[in-house]
Amino acid sequence: MATKQIAVKKPASQMDFLSAQKLAEKYGIPMIPTHAAQRENDLMEISKKIPYPWAMKVVGKTLIHKSDIGGVKLNLQNSHDAMMAFHELRTIKGCEYVAVQPQRKGIEIIVGGKLDSQFGPTVLVGMGGIYTEVFKDSSLRVCPVNETDVREMINELKIAPILHGARGQKGINENQLVKLIMGVSKLMVEKNISELDLNPVIATPASVEAVDIRIIEEK
Question: Per-residue pLDDT for 10 more than 60?
């Protein structure tokens, strides 16, 4: 009698940070330029490519909430600051390398995707940064979404007046944010992904760029 073969679902796995960046860029999701540093000499080469100030963060498959473990260093103004931060980050357990980026200032937004067991791929936009889970200001839709859907999502946010421009301040480049969210929606539909997080996305009147990305692949 033949034995029935039972398919065993493999556990999901987190995509390498730089690989996730490349995939996002293929879908029109703008990412802040990132360079990987594993040795001190790497910092010298990176300094020839991007100006100070820098932001540096620890990268590793087991490291998710980087800020909670001291894994993010900001306002690095020169090579001395960068070297000190590099050595500190490399001591964190699970560190595979250090990501180096030019530091940006702007409004912090989160854009994410999740594979829902009932509705399938979904996309989210909301207030980003380290207080995302505190304020819980977000809007969700089932993928795929069109431009009208995305603009409705943005307008549903409590921070929408700030994004549009308030108290004499210019609004963000909303067209770029719309394209980014639609790119996430398309990626979620076309690829075998269970979770995707872009946090923060730095939005200014001139540009919208994702700083950090986390992609969990379904196996």
Answer: no
pLDDT of residue 8: 40
Residues 76, 164, single domain; the answer is: no
Q: Which of 102, 119, 153 is the last residue of a domain?
A: 102
Sign of the four-CA dihedral 154, 32, 20, 30 = positive
The answer to whether residues 55 and 49 touch, using CB atoms and an 8 Å cutoff, is no
What is the number of structural domains in the chain? 2
Query: Would the pTM count as exceeding 0.70?
Result: yes
Give the Cα separation of 112 and 124 in Å (integer). Answer: 5
pLDDT digits (tens, 9 = 90+) for 122-177: 999 999 987 787 778 999 999 999 999 999 999 999 999 999 998 888 999 999 99
Write down the number of H helices and E strands in the chain: 7, 11
Domain that holds residue 179: 13-31+105-217
Which of 102, 126, 157 is a domain's end point? 102
| Cβ contacts of 57 within 8 Å, gap of 6 or more | 66, 71, 72, 73, 89, 98, 99, 101, 212
